[in-house]
Amino acid sequence: MRPLDRLDLNNLKVELDADGIASVMLNRPAKRNALDIATIEELIEVFQALPRSGARAAILSGAGPHFCAGLDLVEHHQANRTAADFMQVCLRWHEAFNKMEYGGVPVIAVLQGAVVGGGLELASAAHIRVAGPDTYFGLPEGQRGLFTGGGATIRVADLIGKARMIDMMLTGRLYRGDEALSVGLCQYLVDDPATKAHEIALAAAANPPLSNFAICSAISHMQNMSALDAAYAEAAVAGVVNTQEAARDRLAAFADGTGPRIKPGA
Ligand code: 1HE
């Protein structure tokens, strides 16, 4: 496996800064960052390398006016795929998005313009979504004669519920602004999503990496389990995380009264 700084990337731009914040940018703005198979393969490589890169958090963004226009419809049209071919394509999408969601490094998505179809599937694999005034969310699969194939039936349904997802797919309904925030498509709605995402990434990066690893992989895994198994797995993860060396100073500071108290700011 090649390290993050040695990957040969054409459709993504990746940088790791001195604070340990990785920036992963979809970089096909002329095609509205549509996800062709080459981009999906690059996402797999990047999110495979990320947990071993020293990155403490990552910011996922898209170059240009739109975050991501979803499946590359032109490639899909021209490739004339069989059902078996497209199933394999979808499995590569799952590989990429699972590496993101389960990798243990917090991924914060900065969303502008269109976050549609596969673009919403990609955004929903991030751990935190930050939208701006021009961001809109849609699942236009129904109108295109398609169906979701990148995990929306799991992740988008999880964010907004089955009924809203079905409505979006049947009618082409778009969500934006306060409505998008209130249904759970994004957790932050701000004028400057890039700056906010950076702030969030720095805050997350200040946590011990093992805590973040648990937050950004164990919760997702536990959702796939029965409640009984999830409770057992939670106890096992807490056994490891809550006794980590990196927590010692923080606990000591609380015990001697110098550690922060958890209260809302002024
Ligand atoms: C594309 C794509 C694409 C743009 N595949 N090439 N997704 C959709 O149904 C959304 C399709 N895209 C759009 O509705 C619009 O492009 C946008 C609203 C996102 C942006 O509009 P606009 O006016 O800024 O750009 P444009 O003129 O439409 O597109 C600019 C170029 O990007 C143009 O290429 P050009 O070579 O003619 O300049 C477009 O063809 C290209 N482009 N979007 C390929 N999606 C695993 S299953 C997932 C199923 C889905 O994702 S379904 C949802 C698909």
Structure explained in plain terms:
By secondary structure, the chain is an alpha/beta fold. It folds into 2 domains: 4-205, 2-enoyl-CoA Hydratase, Chain A, domain 1; 209-255, Lyase 2-enoyl-coa Hydratase, Chain  A, domain 2. 48% of the residues lie in helices and 14% in strands. The protein has helices spanning 37-49, 73-79, 83-102, 118-124, 141-144, 152-160, 162-171, 177-183, 193-205, 209-223, 227-241, 248-255; strands spanning 12-16, 21-26, 57-62, 107-111, 114-116, 128-131, 136-138, 175-176, 188-189. Strands 1-2-3-4-6-9 form a 6-stranded mixed beta sheet, with helices on both faces. Strands 5-7-8 form a 3-stranded mixed beta sheet. It is globular and about 65 Å long.
What's the gist of this structure?
The protein is of the alpha/beta class.
CATH topology of the largest domain: 2-enoyl-CoA Hydratase, Chain A, domain 1
* Biggest sheet: strand arrangement: 1-2-3-4-6-9
Query: What's the average pLDDT?
Result: 97
Amount of helix: 40-55%
Task: Please indicate the percent range of residues in DSSP E strands (runs of 2 or more).
Answer: 5-15%
Question: What's the CATH C level of the largest domain?
Answer: Alpha Beta
> What is the number of domains?
2
Beta strands, count: 9
Assembly classification: single chain
Which homologous superfamily in CATH is the superfamily of the largest domain?
2-enoyl-CoA Hydratase, Chain A, domain 1
Task: Tell me the CATH architecture of the largest domain.
Answer: Alpha-Beta Complex
Ligands bound to this protein structure: 3-methylmercaptopropionate-CoA (MMPA-CoA)
* Apparent shape: globular
Helix tally?
A: 12
The helix-strand sequence is: EEHEHHEEHEEHHHEHEHHHH
* Gyration radius, in Å: 19 Å
N/C terminus separation: 47 Å
